[in-house]
Backbone:
């Protein structure tokens, strides 16, 4: 494997000039020491330089192509380090360098020695058991496991599983994760990277759903009924109320995705280590969205919002023409003492209909103030071919912070070398275990029978 720093200096001279102007060192890159302006400039130029490399690789011999691949990996890592440091500064509320602040929340190191910290809200054991959408599984994992794989990405691990290790850290990761069946258990710290990519592309997570890292059997409290207080006379017994809380247990089921990659692509593609986990995460996120909204609850499929026992529903039985159904959905939530909705989730078809609302004169309808600030998110995982006319869909409105997605933090990868060998392809199966639980059924409302 070519020296990545030498390769970057050789093939990415303009970027190296950007680093020098920022006062940064390629061999010991320390993003936490940069000003905010320099940090943004270095991230931008690193991504632009990395993006340009694959187009040049066809014009070089094999040795030069390997150098550019090494440079691509290094520049991508530097850009990711900058992005993580920017997130950490925003969470801290101060965009300046890390000198003079709490160093325990500073990124851990630099390219070539130690890895980057992904530091959002502290999630140490006993202090926080779930992750908000803006918080990262990587942070949670770093606080709990010994990271022996500094600088290694999940994409590099997947590529190494197929083509073989090219560095000591890759060999350690593969050796530690290889099981008796010939598959790999992705180290927790690397699994967290893939889970973060999945969560970033999940619509229900964007809507506010929280992630619960599962390490064993996990129970959560579920609101069954609101308590009923009553006035009492002196020395009189306190009025008994119906049970307020029940208990549900996460029962994680297996969610899997298979990707086929040609021999040639694995050998020649400079960005496969970045593209492969992105593709897998997108596919897993789409299915997770579907089951979180529409899951039947019949094993092995978790139960989604549409099939909760006490979810409120309005059967529209027609096409959308005004904001009335959304206002009535909000009213249902307030009546259940849930509070304001965090999001509306619809198929792009229905979002397009809403965006095109007009009055009798053809002028756009003003969005009512009470729902104007509620984001409308879209997913194609909601079908639009239901009902007698085969054109009906469902719209979801609710407080999605009451939706919990439990995930085991270790992902298994199985490599199929022989199954697709006659087409000169590798098969790669990744699966994780997850479950969906609602803290309060009445925090959600569905509008069904929405016609196109």
Residues:
């Amino acid at each position: 494997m070519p020296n990545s720093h030498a390769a970057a200096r050789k093939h990415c001279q303009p970027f190296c000039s950007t680093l020098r102007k920022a006062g940064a060192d390629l061999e010991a890159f320390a993003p936490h020491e940069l000003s905010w302006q320099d940090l943004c400039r270095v991230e931008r130029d690193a991504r632009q330089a990395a993006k340009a490399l694959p187009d040049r690789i066809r014009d070089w011999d094999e040795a030069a192509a390997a150098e550019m691949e090494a440079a691509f990996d290094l520049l991508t890592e530097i850009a990711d380090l900058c992005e993580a440091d920017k997130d950490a500064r925003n969470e801290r509320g101060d965009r300046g360098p890390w000198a003079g602040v709490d160093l325990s929340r500073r990124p851990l190191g630099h390219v070539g020695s130690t890895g980057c910290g992904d530091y959002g809200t502290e999630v140490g054991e006993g202090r926080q058991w779930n992750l908000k959408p803006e918080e990262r599984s990587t942070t949670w994992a770093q606080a709990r496991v010994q990271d022996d794989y500094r600088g290694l990405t999940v994409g590099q691990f997947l590529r190494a599983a197929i083509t073989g290790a090219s560095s000591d850290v890759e060999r350690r990761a593969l050796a530690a994760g290889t099981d008796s069946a010939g598959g790999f258990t992705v180290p927790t710290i690397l699994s967290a990277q893939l889970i973060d990519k999945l969560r970033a592309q999940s619509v229900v997570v964007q809507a506010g759903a929280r992630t619960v890292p599962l390490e064993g059997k996990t129970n959560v409290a579920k609101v069954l009924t609101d308590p009923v207080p009553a006035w009492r006379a002196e020395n009189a017994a306190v009025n008994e109320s119906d049970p307020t809380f029940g208990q549900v247990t996460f029962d994680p089921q297996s969610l899997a995705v298979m990707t086929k990659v040609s021999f040639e692509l694995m050998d020649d593609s400079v960005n496969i280590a970045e593209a492969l986990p992105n593709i897998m995460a997108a596919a897993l996120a789409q299915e997770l969205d579907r089951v979180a909204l529409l899951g039947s609850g019949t094993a092995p499929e978790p139960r989604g919002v549409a099939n909760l026992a006490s979810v409120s529903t309005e059967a529209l039985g027609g096409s959308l023409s005004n904001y009335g159904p959304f206002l009535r959905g909000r009213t249902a939530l307030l009546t259940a003492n849930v509070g304001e909705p965090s999001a509306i989730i619809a198929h792009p078809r229905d979002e397009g209909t809403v965006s095109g609302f007009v009055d009798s004169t053809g002028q756009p309808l003003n969005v009512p103030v009470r729902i104007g600030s509620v984001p409308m998110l879209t997913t194609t995982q909601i079908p639009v071919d239901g009902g007698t006319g085969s054109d009906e869909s469902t719209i979801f409105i609710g407080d999605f912070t009451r939706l919990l997605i439990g995930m085991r933090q270790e992902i298994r990868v199985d490599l199929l070398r022989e199954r697709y060998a006659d087409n000169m392809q590798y098969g790669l199966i990744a699966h994780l275990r997850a479950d969906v639980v609602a803290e309060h059924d009445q925090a959600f409302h569905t509008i069904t029978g929405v016609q196109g």
